[in-house]
Amino acid sequence: MQFTVPFSKDLIYQIIEEFGTPVHILDERGIRETIHNFYGVFSWAEYIKNYYAAKANPNPHIFRITGDEGMGLDCSSLPELVKAEMAGITGENIMFTSNNTAYGEYTKANELGAIINLDDINMIDFLEREVGIPEEISFRYNPGPLQKGSPYFGGDPEDQKYGTMKDQLFDAYRLMAEKGVKRFGIHTMFHSNCLNPEIFVGIYEMMFSLVEEILEKTGVPITRVNFGGGMGIPYNLKDESLDLNSISKGLQRAYDEKIVKRGLDPIKLCFENGRMITGPHGYLVSRVIHTKEIYRDYIGLDACMVDNPRPAMYDAYHHITVLGKENDPHDHVYDVVGSLCENNDKFAKERELPRTKIDDIYIIHNDGAHTEAMGGNYNDKLRSPQVLVTMDGIPKLIKRRETMEDLLRRYTPLD
Question: Which residues are catalytic?
Answer without folding.
Answer: 341
